[in-house]
Amino acid sequence: MSVEHRLFNTSNGSLPYLLSPISDYIKQPAPLVLFLHGARDRGTDINVLLKWGLPRFVDSSNPLPYIFAAPQLPEGQTWVDRESDVIALLDNLIASQPIDPSRVILSGFSLGTAGAWHIAASHPSRFAGLVAVSGRVPKRLEASQLAALKKIPIQIFQGGKDEKLPIEDAEQIVDTLRGLGGTVDFTVLPEGDHFIADEVYSDSKLQQWFVSQSRRNIPLVV
């Protein structure tokens, strides 16, 4: 399934992104998986996203039961810098594609995970799930923002030999979120280093999880 190259214009400059084509296999309206890449994939050549991880998995797979989108940052920027543009892109995709707004999954790798945590915590009503791969929770997140995440099912993946991320840091955030009443699955790949994205995203259980989440299934707290 060859992904398309698109361009989304914002007041902060254009944001190129990858978008999977709509196939007859997709039941409409469909889930959306919105992916935020890591630091080394920033730049002007969006094809670098297709070399590994979730973008490569989507691009090399048969039609999948969800729509996939992946914007690209310019050099030197972070996803926190472009938070408003990511949300604007999400709004644009929902308006222009057959997407179920109650079934949007946000996922990130490394730098993208930090962005995903921040964006999900700032806009918790927009997402049905969060998948964090090889990335830490930004220290700037306040307790109230973390509490907002308790309604979003979260999957956290980390390599046991990741020299950039202490396992203890991930365990602490898992304990904090669970203490707030959140639903968090924490998976450690014992032999994995920082670059575990290929193994994580190609797992059939995670692929099924992408399409099984819905905000309609999340109890409302009155």
From TrEMBL:
Swiss-Prot/TrEMBL keywords: Hydrolase, Signal
Entry-linked Pfam families: Abhydrolase_2 (PF02230)
GO molecular function: hydrolase activity
Gene3D superfamilies cross-referenced by the UniProt entry: alpha/beta hydrolase (3.40.50.1820)
Annotated InterPro entries: AB_hydrolase_fold, Plant_Biomass_Hydrol_Est, PLipase/COase/thioEstase
SUPFAM superfamilies per record: alpha/beta-Hydrolases
Domain of life: Bacteria
Keyword Hydrolase: yes
Domain (Phospholipase/carboxylesterase/thioesterase): residue spans on this chain: 85-198
Residues in the signal sequence: none
Protein name: Putative peptidase
Lineage start: Bacteria, Bacillati, Cyanobacteriota, Cyanophyceae, Nostocales
